[in-house]
Amino acid sequence: MGYLSLSDYDVVRIDTPFGHMMGHWYGNRKDRPILAIHGWQDNLGTFDTLIPLLPDYLGVLCMDMPGHGYSSNLPPGMHYSADDWILIISRVMKEYKWSKVSLMGHSLGGVLSYIHTALAPQTVDMVILLDITLPPFDAPENIPKIRSWMEKHLVEEDRNRLAEVQEPPSYTMEQLRVVLSRGTFNSVPLEFAQHLLNRSVRKSSLYPNRYYFARDGRTKYHTLLPFCAEKALELIKRVKDKPYLIIKGSGSPFIDSRCDEVLNYLSENNPNFEFYEVEGLHHVHLTNAAECAKHIVPFLRRYRPPPMGSWSMAEEETKVAKGKL
Length: 325
Hints:
Blueprint (H helix, E strand, L loop, with lengths): L8 E8 L2 E8 L7 E4 L22 E4 L18 H4 L1 H10 L4 E6 L1 H12 L4 E7 L12 H21 L9 H11 L9 H5 L3 E3 L7 E3 L15 H9 L6 E6 L10 H10 L3 E6 L5 H4 L1 H15 L9 H9 L4
Helix pairs in contact: 7-8
């Protein structure tokens, strides 16, 4: 049994009322794949280093969220919000007529996977969350930031209008790697930045060897669903015994004490819950994909197993013991 190839994929386009969503479907096209959703301000390139470590009997469908990558932006005057982004999952399911979905999400993509699973648990057969458990909670200290984001959203609208008649400022690829890395607080080191830049920049038509960011700036100021500890706990109770894997980056602050009640509930009440900590920051699945795969691959084979006769449990246990998974 082999592994997926990053060069073996079909380009996917799903038409929507606002335009289209774009993606890559890696590997097996006959059976329902894992649906992978990237994080805020990222794109499907976030899974580049993980894809080649996943077993090839399963396909993986990676989608760009609206406003990211090669997917369409929302129309002028519209505002991005988490409740709209959640519809990505339902739109893909509708397109392929799936009654069930297997979800893998990083950061915001993980939040969307968590909320969809809690709201419609009968449609989900397994969940993998990469360095995320819950969205941020509402807090009084967030009020000034919300007001600031409203104003900045209007600034981005003006920039979008200007970009229709005038090319945005452009930079060398080396400069963009630095900008992206600093913007993630080095969660994406320089040597990994290209995986995300490939789908988030466009080549300048005015200057040779220069590029500009093409993702929709309005996505920086999106609205999250109102959230609190009580709601988080009630939602996770709806998951029941769903196969549920969470991987945390050891140096990341995104899974902290506010998640303890939900994690404790899963540990005590869900026999199919797994939690692992892997060395790395928020983009641990990109920068330390091999260690993440050691947990993801057995999880996939346990809950989305290959056809009978194509593998043996003894063989898998031997690979795990030798550190090959």
